[in-house]
Amino acid sequence: MRDLTTESESESKKKIEALEKELDLSSDLQGTQISFFSIHLLAMSLELTGLWGSRTGDLDNMAVELEESESKVEELKAQLDAASEAQDMLEELTDRNLKLQDVSFPLPHS
Asked: What DSSP state is assigned to residue 92?
């Protein structure tokens, strides 16, 4: 019985040692994975920072283009208003001209 207990204890110790080794390997592997993850995360962060930096330049350029476009729209609106006023004036002068012609050269009534 004693031999059986000693044998059982020996097997248990071997299993415990094996599990401890697995745990150590797992811890080492986890540390490696965490380090790899940290490096990967840092690389992604730097990449995004670079992209954001270039996007900031793009946004600045887009803001300038937008401002120029808005200025052009305002100029075109002013030209449209001037053209509309000129058309109104032309119509009014045409009406006056026709009235003057009617007064100067009345049409015979039938």
From this structure: H
| Residue 41, both tokens | 């995360």
DSSP labels, 8-73: HHHHHHHHHHHHHHHHHHHHHHHHHHHHHHHHHHHHHHHHHHHHHHHHHHHHHHHHHHHHHHHHHH
Secondary structure element (H or E) that encloses residue 108, with its range: none
What pLDDT is stored for residue 1 in this prediction? 57
| The token pair that represents 26 in the structure block | 């797992």
**pTM given for the model:** 0.42
Cα–Cα distances in angstroms (integers) from residue 52 to residues 44, 45, 46, 72, 75, in the given order: 12, 10, 10, 30, 34
Burial class (CB in 10 A: 0-12, 13-18, 19+), 67: exposed
